[in-house]
Specification:
This protein is 26% helix and 43% strand. It is of the alpha+beta class and 192 residues long. It has one domain.
């Protein structure tokens, strides 16, 4: 093989590796999670890093609202029956862009947050703080439970033409992996 062919092959290999690495960086990744008892509730705090592909960035800038869903499950295995699922919670977060004011809006329940850039808005979408998922009595003292959490873009909430496009494109299917963690509630004095 000539030197020029080897050089072209080497450059194309480097380019392919670089674009693959960039493509893998897009999506949703869990940075940290806390699951703890606060007052009379089990509370979850989580932080996700969200990186949008170009196609989703353009869709948001054109006024398409994106809805994210965070799912949390707490289970306890039993040898004699199916798993017990004492906690199953879902949280919805909506991201939209207001073209007239050039401001991004993040709706979390009744709370509306504003951001000047998409990066700021994605940080707000990925920050889950003080999410009360269950009463303190939902988990028994001294038993070991397994929790799992993930965040994903809810494709069923997109307008119908975009749902069809989303089924054919990997760029629209962004989701974090299920992250499993162990929960061991300590012995607590019962409230009187």
């Amino acid at each position: 093989m000539s030197f020029i062919k080897k050089l072209i092959l080497f450059c194309s290999l480097i380019w392919a590796c670089a674009t693959t690495t960039f493509a893998l960086a897009e999506g949703i990744k869990l940075r940290q999670i806390q699951f703890e008892p606060i007052e009379q509730s089990w509370v979850t705090n989580a932080s996700y890093q969200i990186d949008f592909p170009n196609e989703l960035t353009e869709a948001v800038k054109k006024g398409i609202s994106l809805r994210f869903v965070t799912e949390l499950n707490v289970t306890r295995g039993r040898w004699y029956w199916f798993e017990e699922k004492p906690i199953s919670a879902v949280k919805y977060i909506k991201l939209s862009f207001q073209p007239l004011t050039q401001v991004y809006r993040v709706n979390v329940g009744a709370l509306t947050l504003s951001a000047n850039t998409l990066e700021e808005a994605l940080v707000q979408v990925g920050a889950i703080a003080g999410w009360q998922v269950a009463d303190l009595s939902a988990l028994d003292n001294g038993r070991i439970y397994e929790g799992s959490i993930r965040m994903r873009l809810d494709l069923s909430q997109l307008p119908k033409p975009f749902q069809i496009n989303a089924l054919n494109s990997k760029e629209w299917n962004i989701s974090s992996d299920w992250y499993a963690f162990e929960i061991n509630p300590k012995i607590r004095p019962l409230a009187k």
